Amino acid sequence: MALVTLLMAFGGAWITPVALKDIAAEAGGAREVPALASALAWLCSGVGGIVLGRVADRVGTRWTVLCGALMIGAGLAISTLGPPWPLWIGHGLFIGLIGLGGINAPMYVYISRWFDRRRGSALALISSGSYLAGAMWPPVFERAIAHLGWRETMLIYAVAEIAVVVPIAIIFFRVPPEVIHPPAAIHAASSRAPVLGWPPNVLFGMMCGAAVLCCVPMAMPQQHLVAFCSDLGITRVVGAVMLSVLLGTAFLSRQLWGAISDRIGGLATVLIGSAWQCVSMTAFLMTQSEAGLFTVAAAFGLGFSGIIPAYVLALRELYPAAEAYWRIPTLLLFSGAGMALGGWLAGVLYDHYGFYAPAFATGIGANILNILVVGTLVMRRRRRFAFA
User: Fold this and answer.
1) In sequence order, which residues have a C-beta less than 8 Å from that of residue 9 and are 6 or more positions away?
2) pLDDT digits (tens, 9 = 90+) for 128-142
3) How does DSSP assign 202-248, residue by residue?
4) What is the three-class DSSP state of 84?
5) Model pTM greater than 0.85?
6) How crowded is residue 123: how many other Cβ atoms within 10 Å of its Cβ?
7) How many CA atoms lie within 13 A of 281 on its CB side?
């Protein structure tokens, strides 16, 4: 039920990438306008996750999910009033801040409290909701946009999303078994304990910075692949299918990454996934044929899909469970900021240069920096265990 909830919640956010050129045409051809809408949805979902993660910890995940579902529907309706400001407000405030913010981060914390064994696999499954949405919905949205228009598509999906998620929230999301509210003194003591020999918030800051750096390149193909294909003379129908292949591969492979992370740990999984993503991102610069792009898209989905749940697993491995309610949403805020920055930056660089190569090259640079940071943490962890 959590997976279905995230599948529907994230579905609305994929309409704008599919309709990117249509929406840009109404904004004077500027692709940064719809790209910024998608960026705001990612960024504000992270901000909302911090606030609503605390709310969910107090009143229950059921109620934040219920409210979030209604706000996503409202955001889609507001977005139909047109670019730029209604589109930005609908995506940023309603879909992102209150909508996905009340569903995504609280759901990570909620599911992590139901599992002691195979927690990595459980987190990998529910975190696949956004990619399953990306695999299922773009071809559907492309057909709906072609026949009805992007506004009508948003309105129809808003009704469907509310009709599915609201009953699930009411019926299924009861209080999890692990609800810990320790005394303030115990919480303060746990917060000061060194992690891998460093102050806990120093290590946490490095993980958050790494999350930004890995999500900048992660967002670029996801948000711009359909438009990128169109620029190469590949039809939007094929581009939508290619995006579906990318995210469908991400969904399927994420279960494999979950099993791997249960064996080797969260940080090591992040490092492997980030390196794979960097290689795949480089391949986008070297491929322009339709068959080649399908192959690269599948490889990209296979590589990046395990990174975010592995970050969450690493937090649960390194920090006390009582701190999950604020550390996990904070990390997701930084990953959302990276997704927002990557999607928006690709639009800006395209508008400036007229092609996507500079944007993808920038993403590769950010990815290399991420590998350096995460590699440092992995080496630090191995040395600590070696001398333990």
Assistant:
1) 68, 69, 72, 99, 100, 103, 104, 129, 133, 161, 165
2) 788 788 778 888 998
3) HHHHHHHHHHHHHHHHHHHHHHHHHHHHHHTT--HHHHHHHHHHHHH
4) coil
5) no
6) 28
7) 31
Tell me how far apart the alpha carbons of residues 76 and 33 are, in angstroms, rounded to a whole number.
16
Write out the two tokens for 152.
Answer: 């009508």
Alpha helices by DSSP H, the chain: 2-11, 15-18, 20-25, 32-59, 61-79, 85-89, 104-112, 119-127, 129-147, 150-172, 184-192, 200-231, 236-264, 266-285, 290-304, 307-318, 324-353, 357-387
Q: Indicate the domain borders of the chain.
A: 2-175+185-387
Quote the tokens at residue 160. Answer: 């469907």
Token pair 């050129």: residue: 21
Q: pLDDT tens-digit profile of 275-312?
A: 999 999 999 988 889 999 999 999 998 888 888 888 98
3-state helix, strand, coil in the chain (%, to 5): 85, 0, 15
Count of Cβ atoms closer than 10 Å to residue 55 Cβ = 18
105 in Cβ contact with 42 (< 8 Å): no
* Token output for 310: 């592995």
Rounded to whole angstroms, the Cα distance separating 319 from 328 reads: 10
Q: Of the candidates 310, 315, 194, 222, which has an alpha carbon nearest to the alpha carbon of residue 259?
A: 310
| Residues 251-270, mean pLDDT to the nearest whole number | 86
Q: Over the stretch 51-85, which tens digit does the pLDDT of each residue have?
A: 888 888 888 899 999 999 999 999 999 999 988 99
The mean pLDDT value for 205-215 works out to: 94
Whole-number Å distance between alpha carbons of 245 and 239: 10
Q: Does the structure show a pLDDT above 60 at 180?
A: no
pLDDT above 60: residue 337: yes
Strand partners, 198: 195
Structure-model confidence comparison of residues 178 and 114, the more confident one: 114
- 2-175+185-387 in CATH: which number? 1.20.1250.20
Closest CA to 158 of 98, 69, 66: 69
